[in-house]
Amino acid sequence: MEISDIPLNLTDKIFQIKFNSDHSIEKIISYFPLTLKERSMLNSISGQDDFSNFHSIFSDTVTDDEWDKTKEQIKKRFQNELFDIDN
Prior knowledge:
Layout: H1 8-11, E1 14-19, E2 25-30, H2 36-46, E3 54-56, H3 64-84
Parallel strand pairs: 2-3
Antiparallel strand pairs: 1-2
C-alpha cells in the first residue's frame, strides 16, 4: 500500500503509518480515533483485512465537520507541543 492510495480526507486524519520491512502496515496512528468505516477502508486499501493495530493521539471522538473546522489548529498545536518537549 502507498500513502497515495488513501483518500485525502482520510490521510488528513492520520498522523503516522509505520510499515514492516515487507511493506505491510505495522501501526496506524491518527489524531482522533478512526471510525469503523474508516478502519475498514484502510484495511481494504492495504489488503490487510485482519489489521487492527490502530492508535490515536487523542481519545476524544470528533465528527467530520468538527475535524474540518479545527484540523489545522489541532495539527499546529500538536506540532508545537512536540517541539516544546525538548525544552
